[in-house]
Amino acid sequence: MKKNTWVMLGLVSIALATSGCTQTEEGATGGALAGGAVGAIIGHQSGNTGAGAAIGAVGGGVIGGLIGNSEERKNESAHRVQQCPQGHDVDVTGYASGSQVRCPIDNSTFTVQ
Ligand SMILES: [Zn+2]
User: Fold this and answer.
1) Distance 74 CA to ligand 1 centre (A)
2) d(CA 107, ligand 1 centre) in Å
3) Domain ranges, ordered by start, for the chain
4) Cα 96 to averaged position of ligand 1 atoms, centre (Å)
5) Cβ partners under 8 Å of residue 111, min gap 6
């Protein structure tokens, strides 16, 4: 009975984690799967594979979600890219709009939008 409750919890957390496609949710999914695997091994050694897997999945899902969430935030403040007149992608991170940037590939300058 108690074992089934944990298994259900694990399944629910995996279902929740796989229901979306943001990095937070991808992180949660990966964390739940990895946590479930690790938990199953630990649980098996201590005689309760199902509970171990479920606890691992829940814990892994939470940790994975946190990791995915911080990845997402990193991307938001990450590189700003603009194309030069010749169509190369140039990193314009930190340049204010209206400033001149040089394309490292063809050495042309262009204005950041
Ligand atoms: Zn260029």
Assistant:
1) 26
2) 7
3) 2-76, 81-111
4) 19
5) 98, 99, 100, 101
Q: What confidence tens digit (pLDDT) does each residue in 54-95 have?
A: 878 888 777 777 777 777 776 656 789 999 999 999 999 999
**Backbone dihedral region for residue 85 (phi beyond 0: left; psi -120 to 50: alpha; all else: beta):** alpha
Q: pLDDT tens-digit profile of 34-52?
A: 877 877 877 888 888 888 7
Q: Sign (positive/negative) of CA torsion 58, 26, 30, 11?
A: positive
Angle of helix 2-17 relative to helix 49-76, nearest 10 degrees? 20
